[in-house]
# Entry
Amino acid sequence: PAGEWAGYAWGITSSAIDGLVIAEKIIAKYLMR
# Structure
């Protein structure tokens, strides 16, 4: 079903976004030193 694929794709996308946000915070802290 398309719904399952949509949910799966959204799960990957949301996880990727969370990863980018965390990486951005880490990079910001590193550059702020």
